[in-house]
Amino acid sequence: MISFIWAQDIDGVIGRDGKIPWHIPVDMKYFKNTTMGHPLVSGKRTFDSYKRVLPGRENIVLTTQINDLSDEVTKVTSLTKLLELMSKNPDKEYFISGGAQVFKQLLPYVDKLYKTTIHGHFAGDTFMPVIDYSQFKLVSSHNVIADDYNSYACTFEIFERQK
Ligand SMILES: NC(=O)c1ccc[n+]([C@@H]2O[C@H](COP(=O)([O-])OP(=O)(O)OC[C@H]3O[C@@H](n4cnc5c(N)ncnc54)[C@H](OP(=O)(O)O)[C@@H]3O)[C@@H](O)[C@H]2O)c1
Fold first, then answer.
1. Which fold has domain 2-161?
2. Pocket test for ligand 1, best of 14, 28, 66 (most atoms within 8 A of CB)
């Protein structure tokens, strides 16, 4: 199974200057809890933004520059090779963690969406590709209000592709 996990603002912003433009601990915790134990696929720019290999998960990085990466990472050099790898393990849930370039290429194949909406407007240079939600069914939704630690309210939604 192929799943996307991401956080976007109200306008679809997901990144700025190679980073995420907000700091929302409740979403970081959600990302960690949801992806823990599962393979995590990221583009090289997103992987670089983590600054380290994320523990407890197989870190799979899409890049043409394999020499730049640590041996702890599974390097994949093309979309075709990534699709082959994932199709060999149909019982696993592959979490695609972005960025925009990677989401865009995998959009035709994604089965499940873990979407966080941050209820704010941020300046950004990277946007989530447009998703046709009519092809998906909302299966879960919950809201978290802003507080002293999380400066914006968030909505956590899960969608599954309609068969
Ligand atoms: N808000 C969120 O949830 C979220 C999630 C993820 C990322 N982000 C943000 O999004 C931004 C990064 O996104 P991005 O779209 O610029 O970059 P990206 O998708 O993370 O990485 C792009 C890089 O991945 C590699 N790549 C992509 N497709 C490939 C393919 N088919 N074959 C081989 N390599 C491939 C290439 O690396 P090489 O140049 O090494 O070949 C390419 O330069 C950052 O600001 C990040 O913080 C936000």
1. Dihydrofolate Reductase, subunit A (3.40.430)
2. 14
